[in-house]
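User: I'm writing a tutorial on reading structure tokens. Could you give me a worked example: one chain, its sequence, then its tokens, then a sentence or two explaining what the tokens reveal?
Assistant: Sure. Here is the example chain.
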Amino acid sequence: MKLNRIALAIVLAAPLAVSAQTGLFSVTPLLGYHTPDQGDSGAYVGLAAGLRIVPAVAVEAEYGKASDAKLLNANVLISPASWATSTMSPYVLAGFGQQDFDATVSGVKVESTDTVMNLGGGATYALSDVLSLRGELRAIHNSDQSKTDYLVLTGLQYGFGGKTEEAPVYVAPVEPVNVVPADTDGDGVVDANDRCPNTPAGWEVSVDGCPLDTDRDRVPNSIDECPNTPSGMQVGANGCPLDEDKDGVTDAKDKCPGTAINVIVDDKGCAKTVTKEVKEAIKEQINIVFDSSKSIIKPEFKGEVAKISDLAKANGNAFITIEGHTDASGNPAKNKTLSQERATAVMNMLISDYGIPAARVTAIGFGSSKPVADNTTAEGKAKNRRVIAVLTAEKTSTVTTVMTKPAKAVKGKKAVKKGKKGAAKKKAN
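And here are its predicted structure tokens:
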């Protein structure tokens, strides 16, 4: 779309035509740097003439020249009073205009006259009542060529003409008001005397507006669940003595901190224990390896028999049973006989060589019926050709255990569900 030059001239002249009735004029010489989408970047020189219609809005006509383009623009500058300071006045700018482009691009002469739209922002800095420095950054969109140029400007703005007269502001008469001292937190102590001005609503406070703390544990009375804590005792956020391991004994008295939650403790916070005597049967595995189909005890294994002798002598009233075993090779009946012979050989050595009374010893052969290893390998078979000594005596030992609290019963729907699951599992087995 091409913008008619006569129409643009009329738009630019309209603000100036009403200037005598509407307010302040301005003239601004401009210098800047033009960066086009097409063509060469370079300096920009221009001149703007403006008119402030209302305090926050001004219109401006501008003509300028860059290295490859001439610009004729009409813009609106908006500068609300809320943005301004005593010397600085930021503004936003929007408008439209015409660009005459004349450049050589890639060796080709390019000329065009296009409509452009402006959008930008900047600020003026007052040097005096009539002079201001001006800085601006602007985007120039060429709607005919779908290209966007950028322009950085600075200028010296001169303002002249009559000032806009503001309508008189009606000020209502002020009636005398009884001033009530402020009490922001509503604790009954006015702010001027309140040393704790942000006390939560409903808390008890002293005359200085600070929360009461009768037992001086640094927890205000209003949230202190233990209001009579002894002086110097460590307390938690609720004002009660600390009990980190929750065993019912406060940390100040707890001699065993860190006790597990399910452990029963004494008045010092230490675990209660119970001591019991435990009896267990004495059973000795002896490592006597027999040759296949043999029941002769080799000399190197006599030390194993000596272990049974020492055990028998240490338990004078014990009765000793010697168990003989074989691997699974051969005939089961023969294996049973062989295992009996092996057990008897150990029994006879205990009686003859170590003086164990015959009445205290017996021998039983189990054949291959109680293997302890794989009978398909040579190593496993060797382990199965063994002799075991069992004493009918009990070893008594003392065991001390920590007393614990019983587990809490599951109540309500959880108990019903648990019961159903247990029944289903039992039925499946």
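What the tokens reveal: Residues 13-23, 422-429 have pLDDT under 50 and may be disordered. The chain is about 20% helix and 35% strand.
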